[in-house]
Recover the amino acids of this structure.
């Protein structure tokens, strides 16, 4: 009886392995919620070659954004983005889909001043129940330690702790 159970277990394991081998790779999914003043979760781990799908939600009272990079750049002595953008470094342009309950789109919400201050890839979620999805593939150039951050309101959000760590391994 016991031997039979073991054999059945081994067989189901083999079937499972076969199924995994043939199936297309599912993206690794994350949901990051933004509030005052934090990302939850605030640590992400990717591997080179992975397809990533991140759903961004804003359950806070203010507009929030997310940027990925390293070496914070300052403007008028305020944190204003990253000197090196993760996606520029990786040669990747994430596909972004906005889903909002409001009329105005987050993309249109970039003031010109914001564009100038925030170089690099950014998703801005207006206040309210806005949501966005971003998809990309992790390239070898992206391996290393990176940061994510929100630089809204002249860097106040970043200084208040709206940041996180992104670790990308090979
Ligand atoms: Cu913010």
């Amino acid at each position: 009886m016991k031997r039979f159970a073991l054999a059945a277990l081994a067989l189901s394991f083999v079937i499972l392995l076969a199924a995994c081998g043939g199936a297309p790779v599912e993206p690794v999914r994350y949901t990051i919620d933004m509030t005052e003043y934090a990302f939850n979760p605030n640590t992400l781990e990717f591997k080179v070659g992975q397809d990533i799908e991140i759903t961004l939600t804003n359950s806070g009272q203010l507009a929030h954004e997310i940027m990925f990079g390293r070496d914070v750049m300052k403007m008028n002595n305020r944190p204003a983005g990253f000197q090196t953008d993760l996606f520029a470094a990786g040669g990747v342009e994430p596909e972004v889909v906005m889903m909002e309950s409001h009329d105005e789109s987050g993309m249109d919400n970039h003031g010109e001043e914001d564009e100038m201050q925030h170089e690099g890839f950014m998703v801005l979620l207006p206040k309210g129940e806005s949501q966005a999805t971003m998809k990309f593939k992790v390239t070898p150039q992206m391996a290393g330690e990176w940061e994510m951050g929100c630089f809204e309101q002249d860097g106040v959000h970043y200084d208040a702790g709206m940041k996180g760590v992104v670790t990308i391994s090979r």
